[in-house]
Amino acid sequence: MNKTVSQRWQRRKAERPGEIINAALDLFVEKGYAATRLEEVARKAGVSKGTLYLYFDNKAALFKAVVRETVLPELERAENFVRDYQGSASELLNHMVYKWWQTVGETKLCGLPKLIIAEAGNFPEIARFYYDEVIVRARKLLADICRSGMAQGEFRSCHPDYAARTLISPLVFAAIWKTSFKQFEQVPFDINIFLEHHLDLFFNGIRKTEV
Amino acid sequence: MNKTVSQRWQRRKAERPGEIINAALDLFVEKGYAATRLEEVARKAGVSKGTLYLYFDNKAALFKAVVRETVLPELERAENFVRDYQGSASELLNHMVYKWWQTVGETKLCGLPKLIIAEAGNFPEIARFYYDEVIVRARKLLADICRSGMAQGEFRSCHPDYAARTLISPLVFAAIWKTSFKQFEQVPFDINIFLEHHLDLFFNGIRKTEV
Amino acid sequence: MNKTVSQRWQRRKAERPGEIINAALDLFVEKGYAATRLEEVARKAGVSKGTLYLYFDNKAALFKAVVRETVLPELERAENFVRDYQGSASELLNHMVYKWWQTVGETKLCGLPKLIIAEAGNFPEIARFYYDEVIVRARKLLADICRSGMAQGEFRSCHPDYAARTLISPLVFAAIWKTSFKQFEQVPFDINIFLEHHLDLFFNGIRKTEV
Amino acid sequence: MNKTVSQRWQRRKAERPGEIINAALDLFVEKGYAATRLEEVARKAGVSKGTLYLYFDNKAALFKAVVRETVLPELERAENFVRDYQGSASELLNHMVYKWWQTVGETKLCGLPKLIIAEAGNFPEIARFYYDEVIVRARKLLADICRSGMAQGEFRSCHPDYAARTLISPLVFAAIWKTSFKQFEQVPFDINIFLEHHLDLFFNGIRKTEV
DNA sequence: GATGAATGAGATTTCATTCAT
DNA sequence: TATGAATGAAATCTCATTCAT
């Protein structure tokens, strides 16, 4: 055995799960869970159907891995960003919203909300994981910013959790729109106008009005 | 013969379609399209598998009928209500939001948004129908109210279509929440607080500030 | 009850089976046994599906009735004709062949040979009936003519049963051709040329050559 | 591991299609297309229902494959034989007739004419293929021999295509007989007597009578 | 007698999963 | 470890037959 070959083999082996997850993400997002055939995933990942089962117990396990592996890294990145942020709450929220759209709305992650929503009923395990590890954390991230905005007299007083939800709703809405209805629209949906309106209304609504 | 006795064999041509659609709505909403077995639909509707095919050409046709029959009547009712309404734009929008939640969020229709979103990719025909007959009409309904609010100096000037979207987003968000994540939440999601916050922010944001 | 109405009703009742058999013949011949749906037979006969079962026990029974009722009358007519015939064997055979084509080959009975052949395996009862009541009788009819032709020195000596089969084969062949392949042929199959050739060869082959 | 032990699970990619076609031929010929269950085909071929679909798209495709694979090889063999033949037209035709009976009439191919005739209506594609690739070619083969017989003064002048049809008819007739009615006959049908009579009449009828 | 809505057995087909190679 | 041929459970859909009206 040649050492470099063996090493390359090792590398390949280490990368396999990621390649499979990547292929699966594309297909799950495009077709949904039930309509995605493992044969296609395998083909797209450049492996055989049998190989899938070396890395994942079954279709459901693959699905879970896809969700886990694609969502968490982004969330952690966001948390780190917020931790280090210096500046006003408005500016930060504004940045978060546009950043979310950049990393989710404009990438293939855009289909993930739809996917998770669609399959939450069939995969309670996934839904719970997503709830605990993504939703709660993400909402806390935004709610904390709102809270600090109120503390600093930037925002008027309101329930930060619900404010966070109000802030997120249009993002989820837009992602879903893109996945499901964009293809039919006559007048194109302009995400920039939408976010601008949303943030304008939101900040107008939440900012402390000077007497 | 006692007619009230439960008979396995009954001729009820008129009632059947409605009963089948009703059963199908429940199951589609609960499990999604693919995971719903026609045998189950039949059992729930109290008919045999074959009877389904007397009234609907195939599974997809049944799905379409479910969407068509459950959504349109509500929308029409809303359109009529708006047409006859006398009062301020704020009051009307406020009413519309709570009414939506009452007729959709708190009934079994609550699962429909999720269902349509989940299946839009697999049923472009449905998605298009829903886009044309529901989304466009519903948005126009709200946008027209916003527009008239602006015309009457109640609201400051902004793009009515996008304002309408901002208004709707949290409703869709809440419906999806209920279908998919409510079961896991630790702190209960209070729809009243949510709508109150949303509308408070929204009207604060959109109302004409007196100089 | 009005007597004429009642009488008309009676007449109608008497004619029903015939109308059903007629419709069934058309469809069996056109589509084959398995591909013929009883609903279609009913529609074509102008009755309901249920009515079929008032007159025939099941699909197989209807099929048998179709065969029985459409074939036997023609055969009997032929037997009567032969019994009364005065003239040479050649002339009679010649006449029989053309007559067969006229009454079978050129009517909807043309599809019957194919039908019976196709279903003989699935309906041994039909096949046996057809063998006993049609094939044996028809062959005897022709064989007897051959036999008398030999007795009268018109034909040279040979086995009359096999001569009869030789005489019939091209007729069956032509009927099958028409049902199954006529639609594809480039050069049209000319039945007159075919029968002329066949009979020419046949009579040339069987006639007593004068020394 | 002992390879000769009967294993339920075997990989035999190369042999499978042939085995399946073979099993299907038997069953199609025995029961007809519609009455043949794919489960039975699978069982007879020693595979599972699913395996059928690895090799054939659907039932119709399997049917087509059966026809294609079983008929064409024999026809090609015959064409090669004729091409290389040295001798009189009568001898050749005589040989062809007996040979046909040997390879078709006395093997399981005997049921194929019936099968194709029976299904021509439901499978126009098959019928057309059979017409183009089998009937036209086979007829041409025989017609060419007749033609050369006429050219060499062996046969008197007639239309070679129709002579070929006359020659073939009794063969088809006999094959159909065997498949459909042989089981009921009282006096056994002797194929040798039949072919002898047929050829005797045919050659008597077609040969050039010396003046 | 006549109807046609309702039934349900049974057919074809799909595809996640297994396992000999 | 990797393959992909093979499996078989399970789904949709059809249609001969039944039976309340």
Explain how this protein is built.
The structure is a homotetramer of 211-residue chains. With 211 residues, chain A is an all-alpha fold. The first copy, chain A, is elongated and about 65 Å long. Chain A has 2 domains: 56 residues, Homeodomain-like (Arc Repressor Mutant, subunit A); 143 residues, Tetracycline Repressor, domain 2. Chain A starts with a helix and ends in a 5-residue tail after the last helix. In chain A, helix 1 packs across helix 4. Chain B binds a DNA duplex (21 and 21 nucleotides) through helix 3.
What keywords describe this structure?
Tetracycline Repressor, domain 2, 2 domains, DNA-binding, 211 residues, mainly alpha, Arc Repressor Mutant, subunit A, disordered N terminus, homotetramer
Indicate the topology:
The structure is a homotetramer of 211-residue chains.
Chain A: H1 3-31, H2 38-45, H3 49-55, H4 59-84, H5 89-105, H6 112-119, H7 124-151, H8 160-180, H9 191-206
Helix pairs in contact in A: 1-2, 1-4, 4-7, 5-7, 5-8, 7-8, 8-9
Chain B binds a DNA duplex (21 and 21 nucleotides) through helix 3.
What's this entry about, in short?
Chain A has helices at residues 3-31, 38-45, 49-55, 59-84, 89-105, 112-119, 124-151, 160-180, 191-206.
Computed over alpha carbons, the radius of gyration of chain A is: 21 Å
CATH class division of the largest domain in chain A: Mainly Alpha
CATH topology of the largest domain in chain A: Tetracycline Repressor, domain 2
Shape of chain A: elongated
* Sheet/helix structural class of chain A: mainly alpha
Counting structural domains of chain A, the number is 2
- Count of DSSP strands of chain A: 0
Architecture of the largest domain in chain A in CATH? Answer: Orthogonal Bundle
Strand portion of chain A, in percent? under 5%
Question: What is the quaternary state of this protein?
Answer: homotetramer
Order of helices and strands of chain A: HHHHHHHHH
The averaged pLDDT of chain A comes out at 91
- Euclidean distance between termini CA atoms of chain A: 80 Å
